[in-house]
């Protein structure tokens, strides 16, 4: 088996159907399987998969166990040389799977790769290529320097100074489309389930790089991310989980290397941003999480 496509669904029936149709429409001579872990959807997502895509290996959870845990359930059943984490609100191009697998086969030092991810309006989804959220890059973002100078190193987190169509080694790609070697998973372990619905992709990439593997942004093909469908109406819980993931990542990978003052500043900044986003949400009709 060449590839195992792992998808976590939660009340995204229509988007999931679209996603699966594009996966099965792929032009490729290789072998692949699809594993869907449904997190207790109440919109008939699991029933739709069972009825319309009988070849999918379906996992039915009775409740929402979180993105990382559900993906780990799917990965545990994966039989491919590669695993692809794919969001249910992503449309893959007909050549996406073939081109990415061909690239990985030709670059054995690469442990993790992601392709170009665009929004429905054609604009780049900035999260598809990132640096780690170090104290410095976080400061540039929180102070607005990354927005004021998008073509400078102040924009190190979202790497907006890099051409969109340039292959580049990065710190992290996004979990909406993340291809990883099975041998890398065997070495670094599964996703950290401390992350409920955000941050697990950056953590995985951090661990892969720490183990000597390259993480690559490979815009030789592109997919469309209907961002927001997987978490349609962002609640205060989702806002909390997003900022809590930032705190978990920092505590896990950076806190031991910095002094009390820096750690205090970072923690204060994370949770000040959380309360600011709650305030913004309360004044807007459409709720959101700004990544």
What does this protein structure show overall?
With 291 residues, the protein is α/β, with parallel strands linked by helices. The protein has 2 domains: 3-130 and 170-221, Spore Coat Polysaccharide Biosynthesis Protein SpsA, Chain A, CATH 3.90.550; 236-282. Helix content is 38%, strand content 19%. It is built from 10 helices and 9 strands. Strands 1, 2, 3, 4, 5, 6, 7, 8 and 9 form a 9-stranded mixed β-sheet that branches. Helix 2 (45-52) links the parallel strand 2 and strand 3 (57-61). Helix 1 runs parallel beside helix 2 (45-52) and helix 9 packs antiparallel against helix 10. The longest helix has 23 residues, at 260-282. The chain is globular. It starts with a strand and ends in a 9-residue tail after the last helix. Residues 229-233 and 287-291 have low confidence and may be disordered. It holds the Pfam family Glyco_trans_2_3. InterPro entries: Glyco_trans_2-like, Nucleotide-diphossugar_trans. Residues 4-125, 160-227 form the Glycosyltransferase 2-like domain. This is Glycosyltransferase 2-like domain-containing protein.
């Amino acid at each position: 088996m060449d590839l195992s496509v792992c998808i976590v669904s939660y009340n995204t029936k229509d988007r999931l159907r679209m996603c699966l149709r594009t996966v099965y429409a792929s032009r490729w001579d290789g072998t692949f399987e699809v594993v869907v872990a449904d997190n207790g959807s109440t919109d008939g997502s699991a029933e739709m998969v069972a009825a319309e895509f009988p070849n999918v290996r379906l996992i039915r959870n009775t409740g929402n166990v979180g993105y990382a845990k559900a993906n780990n359930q799917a990965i545990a059943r994966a039989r491919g040389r590669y695993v692809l984490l794919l969001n249910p609100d992503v449309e893959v191009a007909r050549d996406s799977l073939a081109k990415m697998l061909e690239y990985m086969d030709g670059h054995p030092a690469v442990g993790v790769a992601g392709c170009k991810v665009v929004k429905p309006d054609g604009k780049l989804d900035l999260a598809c290529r990132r640096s780690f959220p170090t104290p410095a890059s976080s400061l540039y973002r929180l102070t607005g320097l990354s927005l004021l100078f998008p073509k400078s190193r102040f924009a190190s987190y979202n790497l907006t100074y890099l051409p969109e169509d340039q292959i580049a080694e990065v710190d992290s790609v996004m979990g909406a489309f993340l291809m990883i070697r099975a041998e890398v998973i065997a070495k670094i372990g599964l996703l950290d389930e401390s992350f409920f619905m955000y941050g697990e992709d950056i953590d995985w990439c951090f661990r892969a790089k720490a183990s000597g593997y390259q993480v690559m942004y490979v815009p030789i093909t592109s997919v469309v991310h209907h961002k927001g469908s997987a978490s349609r109406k962002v609640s205060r819980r989702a806002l909390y989980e997003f900022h809590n993931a930032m705190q978990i990542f920092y505590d896990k990978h950076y806190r031991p290397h910095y002094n009390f003052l820096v750690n205090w500043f970072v923690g204060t900044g994370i949770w000040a941003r959380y309360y600011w986003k709650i305030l913004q949400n309360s004044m807007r009709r459409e709720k959101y999480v700004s990544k």
